[in-house]
Amino acid sequence: MEVQQEMKNTRLLLIGGGQMGRALVGGILDGGGLSPENVQVIDRNAQSRDWWNEHHAAVQTHASLTAAACESAEIVLLAVKPHATCQIASEVFELTSTPRLVISVAAGIQLADLCKASGHERVIRVMPNTPSLVGAGASAYCVADDVQPEDCDTVETLLAGVGIVARVTEPQLVGVTGLSGSGPAYICLVIEALADGGVLAGLPRKLAMQLAAQTVLGTAKMVLDSGKHPGELKDAVASPGGTTIAALHELEKGGLRSALISAVKASAEKSIELAK
Questions:
Q1: Side-chain half-sphere of 182: how many Cα atoms within 13 Å?
Q2: In what order do the strands lie in the sheet with 163-167?
Q3: Distance CA 272, CA 83 (A)
Q4: pLDDT, the chain, mean
Q5: C-alpha distances in angstroms, 36 versus 10, 17, 58, 116, 260?
Q6: Which H or E run includes 201?
Q7: pLDDT at 26
Q8: Confidence of residue 169 (pLDDT cuts 50, 70, 90)
Q9: pLDDT above 60: residue 2
């Protein structure tokens, strides 16, 4: 997706330059979706600021929030911990003369609470995930009442630069949190376990990890590119009486399918708990 020049010139203020901020904004910068000269990062952690200075030297970093940083930004992206999100949104409101587009990536913090803290309803909730850092993210967003079509276009253009993006309702964002938001952790666990299995079968650790990661990557690409149901692709590998069906039998006995479903449900329920 070609990024329009006016989008590259959008002035963005990222509050919270940690893992998720790096994944999302760092990925957008790497993809050319924003000009680094138009990005400011607020983070109290010196090591976090050092990371930005090392990887994106033209990005301005600050240890604390200032009126000048807020006033110069067209978009304020909140990537702080959920418990601090509304407090920071309130501080931004107090430091700006007119409403800015506020985007939050905090799990579980509802639009109503964000709007109240921000002092207006030009607010968007986004649930990205960490693969955004390598241009393979899966993001979804929902909007408050005063968000304009051009605001949605802005968010979709930015997020499309680091993966896929979908607009959902706020209740659906709970499921997004449990699935794609937390999902990279589940898949890392799967990759690690597959590699351990390879080592158990006699493979060198480095080779086992490469084979496991590439197998997950390639299979995901097959699902997305072919449009076929995963079950159909699974059946194509599982020959009658063969090695794969024997392995699948063990996975079913171990409850892998049920465990992953429960993991998504647990993450989704935790996001609701955070909202309270």
A1: 21
A2: 60-62, 39-42, 12-15, 75-78, 101-104, 123-127, 137-143, 163-167
A3: 13
A4: 92
A5: 10, 14, 5, 31, 38
A6: none
A7: 86
A8: very high
A9: no
Residue 77 near residue 105 (C-beta atoms within 8 A): yes
Return the amino acid letter for 1.
M
Q: Report which of 57, 7, 72, 56 is spatially closest to residue 34, judged by C-alpha positions.
A: 7
In three-state secondary structure terms, 15 is strand
Asked if 160 and 249 count as a contact pair (C-beta separation under 8 A), the reply is: no
Q: Where are the beta strands (DSSP E) in the chain?
A: 12-15, 39-42, 60-62, 75-78, 101-104, 123-127, 137-143, 163-167
Instruction: State yes or no: pLDDT of 87 exceeds 90.
Output: yes
| Mean pLDDT to the nearest integer, 44-63 | 94
- Neighbour count for residue 223 (Cβ, 10 Å): 14
For range 234-258, the mean pLDDT: 96
Alpha-carbon span 129 to 35, nearest angstrom: 22
